[in-house]
Amino acid sequence: MTFAIEARGVGKQYVRGAAHYRRLHTLRDALSEWAARVIRRTPTARAAAQTERFWALKDVSFAIEEGEVVGIIGRNGSGKSTLLKIISQITAPTTGEVRLNGRTGTLLEIGTGFHPELTGRENVHLNGTILGMSRAEIAQKFEEIVAFSGVEAFIDTPVKRYSSGMQMRLAFAVAAHLDPEILIIDEVLAVGDIEFQKRCLTKMEDISKAGRTILFVSHNMATVDQLCRRVLWLDRGHLVDDSTDTRAVTSRYLFSDEAQSAAEWRPSAHERPASDYFALNWFRVCDHAGRTIDAPVRNDVDATVEIGLSILKPHPNLTFGYALTNEAGVCVYWTSTHDAGHRHCPRIGAGNVVLTCALPRSLLNQGMFRLDFMSAIHAQEWLVHPNQTRTSVFLRVSGLDETQHLRNTWPGVIAPVLRWSSRPEAREGALDRAEQGAR
Amino acid sequence: MEATLVPMKVIKPIDDRTLVEELADLWRGRGILAVLVMRDIAVRYRQAAIGILWALLQPIVTTAIFTLVFVVFIRLPSQNIPYPVFAFAGLVIWQYFSRAVSDGTLSLVTNAGLITKVYFPRIVIPLIAPCSAALDCAFGVAALFVMALLFGADLQWTAAFVPLVVLFVGLFGYAIGLCLAPLQAIYRDIGIVLPFALQIAMYLSPIAYPAAIVPESVRWLYRLSPIAVMADTMRWALVGSEPPSAGGVVLAFVLTGLLLWGGLNIFRRFEGTLVDRI
C-alpha cells in the first residue's frame, strides 16, 4: 500500500525571538551575540541559548491513504500551521521526513502572487503557475476559469480596478481549477462571505469525491465534522489523537478546553501577561455573590467578568477587555473598557484595580465559551492580543431560561430574547383612518 | 494512475539536501521563473508614458555627463575609440550588473508574500532580477551599436561575443545575489549598505575612465574584478580596443564559478528555514 502522505518523526524547532517575538534581528545583534559567545564560553550562556529554542512540532508521525479527507485540529500555537507548512514544503523540518506521493497543491491563501498592476488574464497565468499548474493546463482551463469567476468583461483590466469581491472570485476560480492529487488547505474558508464559504465547501466536496487526498486545517469543528473522515489533533506540537471517528474527536477536543482550563485564571510561574503598564492578578467570571462560576449556568443569570490588576504605570489610553469565542471557534464579540468612548471609560489609576463587566443576559446561546483576556494602549498598540494569549477562562451555558432550558442548542451564534408584540391586522382603509385618528 | 508517474517526493531537513537536488530544482522552476520575470517586466514599465525608453535614458544622460566631465573639463587622453562609445559600453554593463545585484539581493524580501504561502524552488528567486534586467540591457546594447555607428567607430566581427559578455555579467550578478539575498532576508543591513557599496565599486571600476590611466603598480587589481574585465571585454568585442588580458578573463571565470558554487551553498543552507526568519 502506498500512502499519499507519510510523515515520520517530523519535528520543527524554532528559535524564540528570531522568528516573531523580538524586534528585527540585525547583523549587529548577530555579531555581538557571536562575539559574546566567543569571549565567555560559560555554560550559563549556553543554557540560556538552549532555553531560547522550542519545538513547535515534536515527533509527529502518521500516514494518510490516497483519497482520505483529513482535518487537522488544535489550538493556536499547537503546530497545525507548522505541519502544513512542512508538508507543503514552505519550511523545512528540523527532524524526520515527509513522503508525498503525487502532485501537491497548497492553498494557504487565496490569490497568492496576484499583482494589482497586472490584468486579470495575466494574473490567472501568474497565480496558476505559482500554484503549480503547467502552461498548457492553464491555457486549456482558461475559459473555464474566467467563466467560473464571472469577471469576463474585465479580464483585460488591471486587477487594481477590481472590487475586492471580484478579485476574490477570480483568485478562487484559479484555485478551484487546481487539480492536484494532494490538496493542502489552511483556513481559506475563514475569509469571505457565507456564499463564498459555501462554494469553497462544495468545491472541496467535489474534489474529495474525485478521490483526491485533502489535508485541511480548521478551527471550525462543524466544518471538520461535515467534511473530514479522519481527524489529527495536535496539542503543543504533539499528535495527541488520530482517529476516523471525527465526531468523537472534535467533541473531545472541545471538552478538553474545559478540562484543561479553569473557570478562573491565576498567574503561574510560566505564564503571566504583564507589560510596563500592568500585571494581571486574576481573571474570572463570577456570580452576584462573588463566587467563581465553575459549573454550567443558564444564559439569564447575573454573571460578571472580573479582571484583577496591578497598575504599574497609568496611561489614559490603557485598555482592558476580553474576547468571547464559542466552541465552533466563532468570535461572538469583543469588549473593552474604551468601547463607550473616552469619557465613559472607567478610571484606571495606579495600584491594585478590579475591573468588572456584567455579562449580557439572555444573549449567549448554549455551549462552551472561551473568554480571552486582552489589553492595549487604545488605538496605538496591543499589549495582549486575544488571539495570541492563553490567558483564558471558560464558561458553559446550559439552558436558555426556564421555558427553553430543555432544548439542545438554539440555531444561531447568539440566542437573544427579543420582545415581541401583536396588534389586530388593519383592514384596507382602516390604517389611514387609524393614522388620522392618531393625529 | 497518474500518481504512479509522479516520483515520490521526500521532504527532509535542509542539511540533507545535496547540490545536485538544488540544481535540479532550478530546472524544475523554469516555468515559474518565466512568469515571474514577465511579471517583473510588465509591472516595471506599465503606466510609464514612455515605457521602456526609460531604460535607455539613464545611461545616455550619464554618458553625456561623463563626457562633459572627462572630455571637456578634465581632457582625458583620447582612446582609440570615441569616449561616449567607450563610456556607454561600460555603463551598459555596469547598470545591468548593478540591477542584477541590487534587485537580486532584495528579491527574497520583496517576494516574501509568495515564499511564505506557496512552495516553488526558491533558487529561481534571485534569478528573476538578472533575467528581467537583461531586457533593459538588450535595449542598451542595441543603443550602443547605433551609437558606435553614429560616432564612426568601426565594429568588429567580435561583436558577436557581446551577448556572451552580457550572459557572463548576468551569471556573476546572480552569484552575488545568491550569496546576499538570504543574508538580506535575515539582516536588513545588507540592503542599506548595498547601494553605497555599488556606487563606490562603480567609481573604482574602469567604467567612466580607462584602466590605462591608473598607475601601473595597482593596475593588476583591476584584473581581480570580473566586472572591470567584462567592461574591457565589451569594448574590445565591440570596437576592437585593447583586448582584455587572458589572465584576467580566466580569473573572472574562476571567480564567478567559485562565487556561484559558494552562493548555491549559502542559499541551500538558508532556504529551508528562510520562511521562519524573514
Short description:
The complex is a heterodimer of chains A (439) and B (278). Chain A is of the alpha+beta class.
Shape by Cα distribution of chain A: globular
Q: Structural class from helices and strands of chain A?
A: alpha+beta
Query: By CATH's scheme, which homologous superfamily of the largest domain in chain A applies?
Result: P-loop containing nucleotide triphosphate hydrolases
Largest sheet, spatial ordering of strands of chain A: 5-6-7-3-8-9
Report strand % of chain A: 25-35%
List the chains of the largest interface with their residue counts. A-B, 51 and 40 residues
* Number of contiguous helices of chain A: 10
Structural Rg of chain B? 20 Å
Shape of chain B: globular
Q: Kindly, what is the distance between the CA atoms of the first and last residues of chain B, rounded to a whole number of angstroms? A: 39 Å
Q: Based on DSSP secondary structure assignment, what is the total number of beta strands of chain A?
A: 18
Q: How are helices and strands ordered from N to C of chain A? A: EHHEEHEEHHHEHEHEEHEEEEEEEEEH
Helicity of chain A, as a percent range:
25-40%
The string of secondary-structure elements of chain B, in order, is HEHHHHHHHHHHHH
Are there runs of chain B of 5+ residues with pLDDT below 50, and where?
A: 1-6
Overall strand count of chain B: 1
Integer tally of domains of chain B: 1
What's the rounded overall pLDDT mean of chain B? 86
